[in-house]
Design goal:
binds ligand PBG, globular, 8-stranded parallel beta barrel, alpha/beta, TIM Barrel, 38% helix
Length: 324
């Protein structure tokens, strides 16, 4: 035998030497849930180890992450039912929970990179990412709300704005509004290929943002499709996106690879709430080795071609010393 691939696996030194991809703290973005009030920290029942924080506790959490070398955060708001309406007007009201959280984090920790989520669902009385009329999700009317929301985030100090709504044309629309208002430096991380997935369940529990009726299939993508992701990516690139995101992560590694092979923009992968819940549940039952299954999952995103990984595991992998 001339070729014996096992020779390159014979020692830890050689295995390390030829390792093609690595995971680093700089790849990680930590999603954090925020809630109104003082000294609040309540665990999300379907996401053990993940909490909703009031702003005071959010600042403590960000501080402890920064000390571990974790520097990027994506914020998501849990909004009281009473503040929700059909047009998500709370989402761009000055002084709302979300913009206060962005301001406080940036004021206390200017070195932190704050990613913000633009979509109507946490603020919508319909629980949808767009304006609902007679059971239909209106596209162009929704852009107006998304533009106002994105501007409010930029004014509060967001570093990267991540539209997660899947309306057509929103990247160009938001880019234009940001530029006109002098926010040319604020980046856009587009949820480019966001699929209508069952894996968002625990996130919707965390925010109380599940659709009150219907599903998201007229705007989020069909899990059966990959070529359609190329159309979305082409549009986002032309409209001025700085990052292309694929979501969920693990069931869509082929899509991450497809976009990485076809576009020169950095690729982000969202390792979503249901993926987190799956590994935690198996680990708690003793069915999987927690450290190894989590690290293998995160490394698979790097191998597929993602440089940024949004994951609820971000803090624990650093805290537990799994990222050597
Ligand atoms: C809302 C949004 C969702 C997630 C991020 N932004 C849920 C949805 O589209 O219903 C999911 C994140 C996760 O599951 O971790 N636009």
């Amino acid at each position: 035998m001339l070729q014996r691939p096992r020779r390159n696996r014979k020692s830890a030194v050689i295995r390390d030497m030829i390792q093609e991809t690595r995971l680093d703290a700089s790849n990680l973005i930590f999603p954090l849930f925020i809630v109104e009030g003082k000294n609040q920290k309540t665990e999300v029942s379907s996401m053990p180890g993940i909490y909703r924080y009031s702003i005071d506790n959010l600042l403590r959490e960000v501080e402890s992450c920064l000390a571990l070398g974790l520097k990027s955060f994506d914020l998501f708001p849990n909004i009281e039912e009473a503040l929700k309406d059909k047009y998500a007007t709370e989402s761009y009201r000055s002084g709302n929970l979300y913009t206060r959280a962005i301001e406080e984090v940036k004021k206390n920790f200017p070195e932190a990179c704050v990613v913000t989520d633009v979509a109507m669902d946490p603020y919508s009385s319909d629980g949808h990412d767009g304006i609902v009329e007679s059971g239909r999700i209106l596209n162009d009317e929704t852009l107006d709300v998304l533009g106002k929301m994105a501007l409010a985030h930029a004014q509060a100090g967001a570093d990267i704005i991540a539209p997660s709504d899947m309306m057509d044309g929103r990247i160009g629309y938001i880019r234009n509004i940001l530029d006109k208002n002098g926010f040319t430096e604020v980046s856009l991380m587009s949820y480019t290929a966001k699929y209508a997935s069952a894996f968002y369940g625990p996130f919707r529990d965390a925010l109380g943002s599940a659709p009150k009726h219907g599903d998201k299939k007229t705007y989020q993508m069909n899990p059966a499709n990959s070529r359609e992701a190329l159309i979305e990516a082409q549009l986002d690139a032309e409209e001025g996106a700085d990052f292309l995101m694929v979501k969920p992560g693990l069931p869509y590694l082929d899509i991450i690879k497809l976009l990485a092979d076809n576009f020169d923009l950095p690729i982000a992968a969202y390792n979503v709430s249901g993926e987190y819940a799956m590994l935690k549940a198996a680990a708690q039952n003793g069915w999987l080795d927690e450290e190894r299954s989590i690290m293998e999952t995160l490394l698979s995103f790097r191998r597929a071609g993602a440089t940024a990984i949004l994951t609820y595991h971000s803090k624990e992998v650093l805290e537990k010393g799994w990222l050597k």
